[in-house]
């Protein structure tokens, strides 16, 4: 699984098993990220300053 968070206009995720950091910078100014949501295999990133929701798809860890 991934541990995700956000800093200003950059969303990041960390794989706890490897420590690898994935970053997903916004390509738009004023991309203030609010509360993130998602489901298995997807992270939904609402950007209130751009009126869009970004979706990051990833291969979920099998149970």
Would you summarize the structure shown here?
The protein has 63 residues and is an all-beta fold. Helices cover 0% and strands 48% of the residues.
Query: What kind of assembly state do the chains in view correspond to?
Result: single chain
- How would a textbook summarize the main sheet? 3 strands, antiparallel
Strand percent estimate: over 45%
What structural class do you assign from the helix and strand content? Answer: mainly beta
Largest sheet, spatial ordering of strands: 1-2-3
**Radius of gyration (Å):** 12 Å
Give the helix level as a range of percent. under 10%
General shape: globular
Number of domains: 1
The secondary-structure element order is EEEEEE
Count the DSSP helices. 0
Average pLDDT: 76
